[in-house]
Amino acid sequence: MLSLRGLFSRREGRVEERRDVETVSVTRRTIVLSAILGAASLPLVLVYVLLVLTSFSKDVVTGVELLQGRGVEWTLANWAALLSGQLSTILPGTVTVNIYSAILNTLLIAFGVMVVVVVASTLAGYAFSRMRFPGRRGLMQFIILLHAFPGVALLIGVYMVYLWLLNAFFARAPGLRDAYVIAYTILARASLEIPMSIWLMKGFFDKIPWEVEWSALVDGASRLRVWWEILLPQVKPGIAALAIFSFLAGWEDFVYVYVFTYLGTGGRMFTLATLIEQLVSRIETAELPLAAAAGVLYLLPTLIFFILTQRLLLEAYAGGVKG
Amino acid sequence: MVRVRLERVSKRFGRVVALKEVTLEFEDGSFSALLGPSGSGKTTLLYLIAGIYKPSTGRIYFDDRDVTMLPPNKRNVGLVFQNYALYPHMTVYENIAFPLRLRKLPKRVIDEKVREVAKMLHIDSLLDRYPSQLSGGQQQRVAMARALVKEPDVLLLDEPLSNLDALLRVKIRAELKRLQRDIGITTIYVTHDQSEALALADKIVVIDSGVVQQVGTPEEVYNNPRNLFVAGFIGSPPANLLTGRVEKGSGCAIVAGQRVCPDLPISALLELLEEVIVAFRPEHARLDEAPGGAGMVSFEGEVYAVETLGRENIVTLMVDSVPVKVITPPDMMPREGSRMFIVVPVSKLKFFDPKTELNLEYLAGEHGETTGMQQRG
Q1: A232 in contact with B, Cβ within 8 Å
Q2: Would residue B218 be called left, alpha or beta, if left means φ above 0 and alpha means ψ between -120 and 50 degrees?
Q3: pLDDT tens column, B188-231
Q4: Is A224 at the interface with chain B, CB within 8 A?
Q5: N or C: which end of chain A has fewer CB within 10 A?
Q6: What is the pTM of this model?
């Protein structure tokens, strides 16, 4: 008894803290978490910072020179060269590419992948969530299996189809040929994204109670109208997340883009990814500051998207992945 | 407003038979309750009328129009779901206006109707809110308004009050009854809560295992259950059941040591049985130290438990190790373990055939008719 009393009296000086078991002190938790996460992401952040600095410098910025107090020779030459399509700051005018067409191609492919993935998986996700048809379960399992295949493993087969179609229909039509190359790249890249996206969208549709759909039917709507006017607005976060992910998948893709648009056209058609590959392919002669500028340019949409949509993405991760 | 008629309607889900040969009629302007335990098929029946499910066999008529194969959007029914099923991305106004918008009515007419129905349901101050900003009772009203705004031929309610707290439920119950009377719309109400059904409906349809057990007024269903299921389901606590042996030749039965002699024609029917189940309501019996007089039957039992409910007490007694419940005045507090007499007027006893589970009174009535009709509207 006495010792207990002592325990209590020692506490009397402090403000009584009434906390439920599940509540962790907010300030302390925030500080600890920020410290840990900050430390963990520091190397990555540092690398990106150096990349941005290098793109404005004459030589590669490693950080060491900054610590030693040596100055960095700042310049806009890398960006000037990049934006005028020169692949070298040292020998201007020797090798040039149309940088704007590279950006356009990249955007075309990224938006194309986005549209195809969103349309296909919104429709298929609805069907898997809401329609009972024979083979539904099997098909869903098969889709998961498809997702497990790495895209690189499929490349040879997909390339054969690409070549066959190219030679059969587009060999003698140069105008259509470029359109075909872009379209094929979009479809091939999108089909890699679609399996997982269908599951994501199915999860979103599953969360909407049947009664809401029935209610709209009883109110006088057709099934298509219900899908468009009642269900789609409720899966908006899913669609938005999907749009972002698939846009980035198209934007960031290298292998498919390299094989179909670059190799497939004999090096005539560039995208940002293949352009950077050209800049750094021979590392010993590569002009790294120029490559850094291209890299920063390439990073921009990713950064913008993530900054704008952080909260939406969290919601998608928390809500979407549900069988 | 229409009369809703179901003709030998069955519904199967795979191998499960949810409804079996249901023939029913809901009169124009009537308020009917579909009452049954969960899984009895009552909601399935409602969805069949709404057109959400299609019957496996049988036909459904609105007046003389065959609607069996019509999709829900062609039936003009109003349906309120248990979880209200409001459209979360629309405001209250847009929710209520949705059915009218689908009919391509002019904006002015829609606005007029939405405001009118909102006023009637006292939600006119909530029109700009979203469903997530409303309380359960308010959401329920919005769902109601959305169902009523299109002036449906039939109003279907699927447990509309079960998600509300007890006090609100009783309040809205009275409003609902008044609303239905004022509009005069044919209303079918699904519930598992017998007090709701008894309080609201002109007619109760008791369903169990996909089969209609009884159709009748609340008074009929309560006081004269057609079979043992209804006797054991309706009432709180439900009817007491005691098994007895038929005394051949006398038209009487021996139940818990007591000779029970019903009037004709029950006594005649009794002769055809070996055993009989006797049922009586807890409130029809009284407890006494001494057996009752003429016209009464008195079962002796041992007091097992006394539950005090304020307005009344429920006393449980063991009669031949069968629990029997009796409702007594609140001042009646018999000692546990004491022996007392349960006194019931013979006229309040109902007799059931243990094999068919049917009330002999109904059997007597149906013997007179040539048809073996199971349900009478």
Answers
A1: no
A2: alpha
A3: 999 998 889 998 999 999 999 999 999 999 999 998 999 999 99
A4: no
A5: N
A6: 0.77
